[in-house]
Amino acid sequence: MPELPEVEVVRRGLERWVVGRTIASVGVTHPRAVRRHAAGPDDFAAVLSGARIEAARRRGKYLWLPLTAPGAAAPDDALLAHLGMSGQLLVKKPDAPRAKHLHVRFTFTDGGDELWFVDQRTFGGVSVEHGGAVLPPSIAHIARDVLDPLFDGKAFHAALRRRDSELKRALLDQSLVSGIGNIYADEALWRARLHGARSTATMTRPQTARLLDAVREVMTDALAAGGTSFDSLYVNVNGSSGYFARSLNAYGREGDPCDRCATPIRRITFMNRSSYFCTKCQPIPRPRSTTRRESPTTTP
Question: Three-class SS string for the chain?
Fold first, then answer.
């Protein structure tokens, strides 16, 4: 599934190619692609026809395009998109051959390049979010990401300490910090020299700060490389793949020597997915004692 860098690359492409343009028509060829739009495909197309795209925004792995239109969409509506496992938002010439899994097609009044929503596995989707220009209500529960200037590192540390779960599980929890998936969690943990099975309740402030710095570094490096593409399902709006996979230190490198210490990278199963780490740089934490000291009682 695309993570923060991949979705941000798509957002930047939308900002360049569709912001400021007015939608002429919308064609829905697969109703599942608009299943989150409760009023149905016809209403989805009608609401968006004549709407002008004012911006391209992102929260975690979600994208939305605030809209304005005379009488069609309300001034605070937005087009919300989630790419799911294989969703793509592509900018295409009007005469381009139709993609096999093209589910929603947006044309514009200027007659220029179109916007296509293509999704092979149909886990993603688009919808109109009423009142969602600033932040769509359906994703308000999703936390800010580490690249957001308003992300609160102190609050994140406090939440970790209260959570008392595995560190990697916390990184994947979009209500704590958004945009981090399996790939970038492993990469950040490797850079921070922390094991994903460590209890969050044992994290110190310096360790949390080191981890957040590592997450920011990984995300920034991945953005510069256009994201991580292991197959043709993740591409930017022009159909190009990212190449951060060439720079991965841990993820997918089982048996390869660690880039720091040459110890072979190990793979384990965690949360029904693969986790990769260096046994020397990221030692497996010792089990915590389950014995608790009895609190002294006070006799009134």
Answer: CCCHHHHHHHHHHHHHHCCCCEEEEEEECCHHHHCCCCCCHHHHHHHHCCCEECCCEEECCEEEEEEECCCCCCCCCEEEEECCCCEEEEEECCCCCCCCCEEEEEEECCCCCEEEEEECCCCCEEEEECCCCCCCHHHCCCCCCCCCCCCCHHHHHHHHHHHCCEHHHHHCCCCCCCCCCHHHHHHHHHHHCCCCCCEHHHCCHHHHHHHHHHHHHHHHHHHHCCCECCCCCCCCCCCCCCEHHHHCCCCCCCCCECCCCCCEEEEEEECCEEEEEECCCCCCCCCCCCCCCCCCCCCC
